[in-house]
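Hi everyone,

Forwarding the result from last night's run.
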Amino acid sequence: MASFLCQVQTIQRSAGRSVVAAAAYRSGDRLVDERLAMEFDFAAKDGIEHAEILAPAGAPPAFRYREVLWNAAEAQESRKDAVPARELLLALPHELTFEQRRDLVRAFVSEHLVGQGMIADVAMHRPGKEGDQRNFHAHVLVTTRVVGPAGFGRKPPEWWSPQAVVKWRAAWAETQNQHLRRHLGPDAPQVSHLSLAERGLDREPGVHLGPTASALERKNIASERGEQNRDTAAHNRKRAELRRDFQETADRLVEAVPLISVPVAKLVKEAEQMRVRMVAERDGWAAERASLGGPKIETAGQIERALTAEAARERALAKARLARVEGRVAGVRSKRLNLVQWVRNPARMIWAKHAELNAIARARSALRRADLQLEVRASWARSPQGQAYVAARRGPQLETAADVARRKRTLERKVKRADKRIAGATRTFNDLRVAQALGQGELRVPAKVPDETRFIRDIGGPAREAVMRFPAPARQQAVERLNRGLGRVIGRGFIPGS
């Protein structure tokens, strides 16, 4: 089935990356980076299915050439941590042909990237020879500055908003679904940019293998991430099996229960009480999810700075003491030279000079010791032992954060599933009220239902059938009476065509 992937990353200079090199590799081209005075030749690279540059109408014609475009983007940046480009990695549906995949990428890039003013360098890749043969994907390098006839301009802040990435992901899912339905029919597989928790699916997500783990797995060597995915898959299968067994058992219990006639008024009351319980439970989960704040996780840099903080303070104090001593010595020396009794007494002058030199030497020695202590601590923090200490200190924080994230995902799934059940309970409640307003006295329903899902199905179904047996004008009048009495609109689906 089709899969969803839309990852966004930066091509950042401080990470030692060159957008010219990235463009050459992704497009299978030979490009020269003028800033680095280096040539990047990937013309022999295999697996490039298609490459092209899409630009807005006002862009300079020269920017249609890959080498000119990305050298201009690099030249526009002066900071050592500059970001001359960003990259979108898109998974393409293997169910489509090459032409259909190319049209899909062009449609998305033209509307949501180039349409916003960016220049996009698109490279579509085929699956690798040893990897998953469904792994068709596209790399899209996009500029980070507004482009006009004269070249690049400012960096729009809205392009850097986190919401921009959210919109791109949602737009990629919608565009992919449209093209899948267009080419494969209304029953085509569909994708979603939402997480499993956001969709209310009771399934744990896997982790991305990455190139290293994928290479090991292809050689039948178990990787840590591969083992994690296999454990997750086994857990999901067991969870689905238990859920299926529960549903089958509940269905058998309902089938064995006899049907009885129950007054509609009693069913309305039960449905209302059930809906109130469900809403309260759902609100409790939502409140608990909102109260789960993410724990503070120290970065490796913060821990390293904490390890050297005391030595850094001592160094700063020693440096300040040296500055004070030198300032005091200079001031005293200037005054002493103006005193006749000092100038006429060489012994006192020599003694004073030695005292000044000794004071400065002590201050400088203290600064050297502080520098050495700071360097020793910093070196240890960078050593394998220091890095092991940093990892051990961050470990419990990361575990706590992972536990909170898992709890949030669980609560998110519960809330989403509760929303669906509440919507069904509301429909059942409205069906029963309309049936009661139409004068339906009783309904033949199971004597006992094991849970809310069966109540919605086994009570809501007969209620809907009872309502639909009445003429449309009578249903219309009943709904209007209920709306007037409740002061709100319910049951639009009761009237055909409404």
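Residues 489-498 have pLDDT under 50 and may be disordered.

Cheers,
N.
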